[in-house]
Amino acid sequence: MTDTRTRLWIGLFVLVVFLAGLGAGIVATPWLDRGRLADRGLGRDGLRPPGGTERLVERMSNRLDLSDEQAARLGTLFDARRDRFRTLRREMRERLAAEQGSFRTAIADVLTPEQMATFEREFLRLGGRRDRGPRGFGDREREDRGRP
Questions:
Q1: What whole-number distance in Å separates Cα of residue 125 and Cα of residue 144?
Q2: Which terminus in the chain has less CB density within 10 A, N or C?
């Protein structure tokens, strides 16, 4: 073999080894992460699974050597706190919806009916874009010209 061919084969070998390692890393990562996330009491998506309170209390009990009474009290405390946070989130959503309604009413007091109709048409059009991400400069002009 010539020197150029040897270098080419070595380079190709290094590339193949690199790609094999990359592929193995991509394939193995979900299994490796699953164990690490499980150690922290998290699900595959990195969030606490439903019913995670029991596992959390069990883990705390094992690591902190809790009595049965302490574990039961902590479980009750965590469940109550979770329910309270859910209630607070629901209340905040309701308060924000009411605030949006009063804001819209205040805008209607300032604008003429024609202006309000245009505003609502634009507002609803923008509201329907939420799934496509934020608007950037030039979006309006592109849409006016029939381009997405």
A1: 13
A2: C
Q: Cα–Cα distance between 7 and 13 in angstroms, integer?
A: 10
Written as tens digits, the pLDDT of the chain (148 aa) is 578 888 888 888 888 888 888 888 777 776 666 555 555 555 544 445 555 788 888 888 889 988 989 888 998 998 889 889 999 999 999 999 999 889 888 988 999 999 888 888 887 666 544 444 445 444 554 455 554 5
CA separation for the pair 81, 83 (Å, rounded): 5
45: Cα within 13 Å, side-chain hemisphere = 4
Note whether 57 and 71 are within 8 A (CB): yes
Rounded distance between C-alpha atoms, residue 58 and residue 56, angstroms:
5
pTM score, whole prediction: 0.41
**Other CB atoms within 10 Å distance of the CB of residue 57:** 21
Structure tokens at 95: 């308060």
Spatial separation of the C-alpha atoms in residues 74 and 88, rounded to whole Å: 21
Residue 25 in tokens: 């890393």
Are residues 83 and 94 in contact, defined by beta-carbon separation less than 8 angstroms? Answer: no
| Degrees, nearest 5: CA angle 46-50-56 | 75
